[in-house]
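Hi there,

I know you've been waiting on this one. I reran it after we fixed the sequence typo, so this is the corrected version. Both the input and the resulting structure follow.
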Amino acid sequence: MRSLTNLRSLASSVLTRDFHSSRVVAQNAMAHSYYEEEQKSMQKTARKIIDDDINPYVEEWEAAGQYPAKEVFKKLGDAGLLGVNKPVEYGGMGLDFKFSVALNEELGHIACGGIPMSIAVQTDMATLP
């Protein structure tokens, strides 16, 4: 009886893992097909900045209790990653909301919560027209 219980537990575990893996693969495939080349290109630009100019310094900035926001925002602004869905007449890029979603998805790869939150506050909450 015990071996039957173990077998059922093993089968359940394998099925759950396979289902979860399949679901993750499907979600990644859907996300990949959801974005057009322009959004993917913007994500690639953001990821490069995150990987090269932000994540390597996060622990240092966390220990100091602050980060060089001016420099980070300048880098993001120079790359065209601020104000992506704001009207052109106010200095934005005038792109649709899908670009904002794609950018915010990439900001989730920053190795802490404070930096992407500060970026989101400036680009999506406190930006005046």
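Quick highlight: Helices lie at 2-34, 37-54, 58-64, 69-78, 97-107, 114-125.

Best,
R. S.
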